[in-house]
Write a structure and sequence with these properties.
The chain is an all-alpha fold. It is 63% helix and 0% strand.
Length: 71
């Protein structure tokens, strides 16, 4: 069970950091419709969304780090 939760934390870390990078490099008009921040025809990049996603990803990374520590 511990290995499954640790794997889930690691997957979420990678996913949220990748999503943050995607927000940094993709204009709002090119984002998929289901992501927050989509604006049709906009060339604006959502830096706040990207930063928030990276911070959440780093939070999951810290959780994974603490969860993997030996007792």
């Amino acid at each position: 069970m511990k290995k499954l939760i640790l794997t889930m934390f690691i997957v979420l870390t990678v996913a949220f950091i990748a999503l943050g990078i995607y927000y940094f490099v993709t204009p709002a008009g090119s984002l998929p419709h289901h992501l927050p921040g989509y604006l049709a025809g906009s060339s604006h990049k959502h830096l706040k969304h990207g930063l928030a996603s990276v911070i959440v990803g780093l939070g999951f990374g810290v959780l994974a780090w603490f969860y993997s520590a030996k007792k």
